[in-house]
Prior knowledge:
Layout: H1 8-11, H2 14-22, E1 53-56, E2 62-65, E3 71-72, H3 80-85, E4 86-98, E5 103-114, E6 120-128, E7 131-138, E8 141-142, E9 146-151, E10 159-171, E11 176-186, H4 192-196, H5 201-205, E12 216-219, H6 242-254, E13 258-267, E14 275-278, E15 281-282, E16 286-288, E17 299-309, E18 317-320, E19 323-326, E20 337-341, H7 349-367, E21 375-379, E22 388-390, E23 393-396, H8 403-418, H9 424-443, H10 445-462, H11 481-499, H12 501-513, H13 521-527, H14 535-542, E24 551-560, E25 565-574, E26 580-588, E27 592-599, E28 603-612, E29 615-620, E30 632-636, E31 658-660
Parallel strand pairs: 3-9, 4-13, 20-21, 21-23
Antiparallel strand pairs: 1-2, 4-5, 5-11, 6-10, 7-8, 7-11, 9-10, 12-18, 13-17, 14-15, 14-18, 16-17, 19-20, 22-23, 24-25, 25-28, 26-27, 26-29, 29-30, 30-31
Helix pairs in contact: 7-8, 8-9, 9-10, 9-11, 10-11, 11-12, 12-13
Amino acid sequence: MKFVSPWTLAAVPVAAVLATALGLAQTPPAAQSPVQPATPAGVTPRGGQVIFSRSSDENGDTTTQAGPAAQATSEPMASDADRRAVAVTAMDLDVRLQPAAQHIAVRAQLTVRNDSRSPLVRIPLQISSSLRWEQIRLGGRTVAFPVATLISDADHTGQLHEAAVPLAVPLAPGATVQIDTTYSGTIAPTAQRLVTIGTPEALALHSDWDEISPAFTGLRGFGNVVWYPVSSVPAILGDGARLFDEIGRHKLRLVGCTFALRLTAEFPQGQPPAVALVNGVSVPLTVADTHGLDPDLTGVATAASAPVMLGFEAPSLFVARRTAHPGPAPAGTVPNVTAWTTVDNEVAVRFWLDAASAVTPFVQRWLGARPRTPLTLLDLPDPDDAPYEAGALLVAGLKEAPADRLGTVLAHALARAYVPAAPAWLSEGQATFVESLWLEKQRGRDQALGMLEADRSALALAEPSSPGENPGTPLAQAIAPVYYRTKAAYVLWMLRDAAGDDALSAALSACDAAAPANCNLLQLLQKTGAAGDPSWLFSDWVDADKGLPDLTVDGVFPTSAQSGTYLVAVNVSNAGYASAAVPITVRTANSTVTERLLVPARGRAVQRILSVGPPTEVQVNDGTVPETGASVHVTPVAPPPPAPPSTGPTPHKQPRDKNAQ
């Protein structure tokens, strides 16, 4: 029985899992009528001219004043080429939340670069279809812009509102422009994109739970709810992997983007939020409550996230009323985990903290004494909602669960708190690698390799049909989880077998402690004095995508030696374009001997192993090296007949290998 990681479903976009599991026909959602001229909602700039403002009339209704409204249009003005050309290099957000009305108003100041080879005459910017563009300014001047409704499942509504911002002067390739935008609207739970393809609404809402509410605001970003401006190519569920590739491409294009956010959130009197998290990192809240005043008067909580460089992530925002439960910490130190729970899970959270305490020494052994950022556990409103990870944040129902399952989940989550957010193959790959190592410690090596094997076939299908003819998808540029998570974990397993636990642990700890740009895992491994030179592995598996090896056992040749020993020659060929160092194991009735063999790409190699007693079986690969087909090759061996005294032993060729798994 193959092991399936507790995070297997969470690691893949849940919408795809639901659609696949239910075998549903996937069709695009019905188009809504074009957006009407926007009625602006206000945000006051930090200085200078008021672009627009908001106030309440005598009836308590919101009124606004603003500049020119957007122009409605039924047809998009931008092309996919325009959308691919836009790279956001800086994002400064002023976010105002009215949770009681599920309302958000944002002023977003963007720096946009033209990454294409042709000048851009317009900048396409998109937000969720539940939000409305209100004003866009270039060079201090308000511009008129058309707005179109796009069908795209990158948002939980199944649609995006796209503003095509016209440029007075075309933006040259490599040049940047600053754009000042304002928009607002409501964000309520909706699973329209999943309901459209036939998913039962109750089930779909456990996946698409993003919302704004007084007790919990959760905005996961592109791929769930587009609450900040983006430029993307529309994609829908059911169109192969296009949607998930677009989600990955969005994260990759944001790597290095400077991101800052200021938050103002209203709350009912006496019910302030306790925690705010921006991109998975807790930010201090300043609370101004209204005790003793009019009970209908709301309080205000504010927070600010200093400018940071984004990693491989979609910007996210969480604000919630929760109770903090710090994990244990040595005297004078900060806990490496804090759980924020609902009242329902005040008792159950102890299981999570105990599991984190049990796992922590193991993670420290591999990744170092202290994480980059303490891990935050945030309790979801519904315990059955799908979990979500963002850096050092795990959002999940913190209900009681078996200790072994929680240990595996927290090994992954704690590892994420240690590693930089980019490159993805090191952040996601390390977390998956540590998770598998914890599983090995708890249940044995076969279970850990079973976890990898569960995703190997998907990796084999994703690899290029003609590897070796082009660079493919190097891990640093990977946009699909099957590469930056599955293949990366395999690479780390191979490095472990090549360098040893101590050398790899030292290299990973040094890499995690360094700035992301200064992390060169190959150089760090070479500095540790690891046996052998893993340069070939980085060349074939990391820096280029050469597909997977395709190994065949061409023959096993046992030769009777002396004193009951046998010399076993194992011939292995590789039809793939990636070299592979695989374990070769010779088994006898009473012993097992293993040596490693490097089989070059499109080549052959032979390994000779001395065994005590006649060999009964030879195994090539144990599952640590993914192949296009089975990753374990077992060949039964019949011992050669006794050699005549007057002649030397005659090699005995065995039949071709019998693949297992």
